[in-house]
Amino acid sequence: MLTLVWAELALPDAHSVPQTRFGVLVEGSRILETGSYDALRERHPSVAVVGGEGLLLMPAMVDSHDHGRGLGSASLGVPDDLLEIWLPGLWNQPVIDPYLAAAYDGLRLLRSGVGVVAHSHNPRDWRNMAAEAELTLRGYADAGIRVAFHPPIVDQNQLVYADLEGFLAQLPSDLRAQALPFANAAPLERADYFALCAELFARYHDPQQHNVHIQVSPAGGQWCSDELIVAAVEFARQHGTRVQMHMLETQYQRAYAARCWRTTFVRHLDEIGALGPWMTLAHMVWADAGDFALLAERGVAVAHNPSSNLRLRSGVADVPGLIKAGVTLGIGLDGHALDEDQDYLRELRLAWTLANRPGSASPTISAQQLFRMATSGGVATTFGAHAPLGRIAPGLLADLVLVDWNAVRGVWFAPWADPFEALLRRATASCVTHVMIGGRWTVRDAHSTTLDEAAIVAAIRSELAMQSDPTRRPHALVARALAPYLRQFYAAWEETK
């Protein structure tokens, strides 16, 4: 079955110049030929054709770090704050069925032009993570989006970093008792975790069509012992998969490394053998610039999350420094976009704007560089450098997006203007018209072809309505009561360099 996809303008990859009247011949799940639409049409006069004037063709993009919650935390009653204060509030969020959350998240991402999502799972119940994983993977599959799925594991510092006894000692006795459940380790033993990952890997990991990658996730350096991190790396290397960790999201995590090891987190990870081309580190807001060359040398990738970093008051990652050092970069929504809309094109606009810093000596980061982070860089960050995605070229998997170019360019577009800049400065999810994943149309005329989105939304609303009684959410009061004590606890850490 052949399909010819074409557009007035095309951005085949982040390194090529824009192409006009560009066509892509798709056979099955792969790209068979690319080039002049008119020449391809002449050679294949009977194939089905999708596209036309007034459209822009580009590869599907990659959400390199997310959590698949379905809805934003603000709408679930968890207000933004410092990460260390915000996290206990997540205990209070109502539960959304993992299938519905993944299906709805997948639908929204596809309509934003995203073809791959890196899903860092937030367990509803740690003891039931195997069933949650299956439901989540089925939700993404039914939506039609590719996923890198990594269940998390933690084994320390659940409530505060390093000094739990000191923190609990400053609490009133009644609050101390209520805080203990937040501090208890997750009920998942290391052996059980890796057994689960091995089972998921055997059942779902797909290195040929890349519909699902099963990866491992020691959730963050401060939440995981060295032994756990090393075990995760060993698992990944033995199975030919990746590790994704939250890393240096806040200044307190940098201070934790300084207190524990008198060195940087990155250098400590290198000392224990954790850094390598199998590793993706999410956030990296408080990474030391002196470590960027080491990250590049070891082949470590970084998933940048600009909206989330701003909303949780973490700061702005040094994207220009990471680019200069040659670090592979992707961009992730983290389930925490500024507008809680999972609009990946809007996230690119924010990432590009923040990357260009004040000062005449600051480097200029181009729209093309950001486009690379969203496409081929995102593929390398999420699936690894050899996955055949992120570009439009013969032999690669056919993940294509058609955008309403007339809506993007507006009233007038100068002949000398840069289409990459127009896309990043003006486009939103509302401009995405058609999306093809692996040769299958998952979005046509801005609507899903795979699932009834209205039915998914109705099911989520019904589920949440049954959990709307605030008196049934006691953790909210505890999290709110802990907030000033957490603020006081970490205030002392701000002096640590």
Brief summary of the model shown:
The chain is an alpha/beta fold. It has helices spanning 37-43, 83-89, 98-110, 129-143, 164-169, 173-183, 190-204, 226-239, 251-261, 265-271, 292-298, 306-311, 319-325, 344-355, 367-374, 376-382, 405-409, 419-426, 453-465, 474-491; strands spanning 2-10, 19-27, 30-36, 48-59, 61-66, 114-120, 146-150, 152-153, 212-214, 217-218, 243-247, 279-283, 301-304, 328-331, 400-404, 432-437, 440-444, 447-448. 40% of the residues lie in helices and 20% in strands.
Task: Note the main attributes of this structure.
18 strands, 2 domains, globular, four-stranded parallel beta sheet, TIM Barrel, 497 residues, alpha/beta, 20 helices
Describe the structure.
It is a single chain. By secondary structure, the protein is α/β, with parallel strands linked by helices. The chain folds into 2 domains: about 1-60 and about 395-450, Urease, subunit C, domain 1 (Roll); about 60-380, Alpha-Beta Barrel (TIM Barrel), CATH 3.20.20.140. It is built from 20 helices and 18 strands. The strands form 4 sheets. Strands 3-2-1-4-15-16-17-18 form an 8-stranded mixed β-sheet. Strands 5-6-7-9 form a 4-stranded parallel β-sheet, sandwiched between helices. Strand 12, helix 11 (about 290-300) and strand 13 (about 300-305) form a beta-alpha-beta unit. The radius of gyration is 23 Å and the shape is globular.
